[in-house]
Amino acid sequence: MQTQLKELLPLKELHYEVGRSKEQAWKQVTESALRRAFSSDSHILTNFSHASSAGSYNMGGMSPGRMQNNYLARISAYEIALNTAIADLKMSLPEEELQGAYESGEEYAFCRDLRALVQLAKNETLVIDPYLDPQLFDVYVDSLPSTVGIHVLTSTPKSNVLILAQKFATGRPNFELRTETKDLHDRVLFVDDRCWVIGQSIKDAARTKPTYIVEHSHELMRKLYQPIWDGATSLVKS
């Protein structure tokens, strides 16, 4: 559709006697594309059809000036209809993948972006990291709404993590920390129905080595990690 819009705009500069044949060729191609993209009863097709009769007409013939004005009116109406179609298509597309790569020393950029992903949670977030430290609570999940479930899976948490998790749980509904010592290696973040894989443990990410955050299939990763979560040992639960 963007290509069709790009091809339409130069027609504005033409005289109607030159542009009319180009307009008709453009209209046929564009209408065919719209019919493939939208259902037959879509308002998009209706708008496009109405654009072909934009302008003012009478039964007694029209002056060259009126012909030119009507030609320009049709081109403008086509432009509006096509922009509407493009906006509609964009709304129906999946959300753009969110991901990033971080050089050594870009700890803040990593922290900022990971926090932004966590803050997308509306229902639940599950953080999987074998080597956690207290910043998980202080930096990443503390400001989430109380309605969001916060679940954390790690290997062998240090005492300071356990102490903070216990304090966190006292004022937080739907929080749980579990441990699993055999099957954890990767760092994974689940937020509602999305999932990201993280190159390094959150506590050390981008400190001395480059790392990444890459979006992955939620469905595939959930199949891998849900059984691990289900079989893990609960250490702290609100």
Describe what you observe in this structure.
The chain has an eight-stranded mixed β-sheet, with helices on both faces. It has two domains: 2-92, no CATH class; 100-237, Endonuclease, Chain A (2-Layer Sandwich). With 238 residues, the chain is of the alpha+beta class. Helices cover 47% and strands 17% of the residues. Strand 5 and strand 6 (194-198) form a beta hairpin. The longest helix has 29 residues, at 64-92.
Rounded Rg: 28 Å
Separation of termini? 52 Å
| DSSP, total strands | 8
Any idea how many domains?
A: 2
CATH class call of the largest domain: Alpha Beta
Q: Helix amount, in percent?
A: 40-55%
Summarize the structure.
This protein has 238 residues and is an alpha+beta fold. It has helices at residues 2-8, 16-37, 43-51, 64-92, 107-118, 135-141, 159-170, 218-231, and strands at 100-102, 124-128, 149-154, 175-179, 187-191, 194-198, 211-216, 233-237.
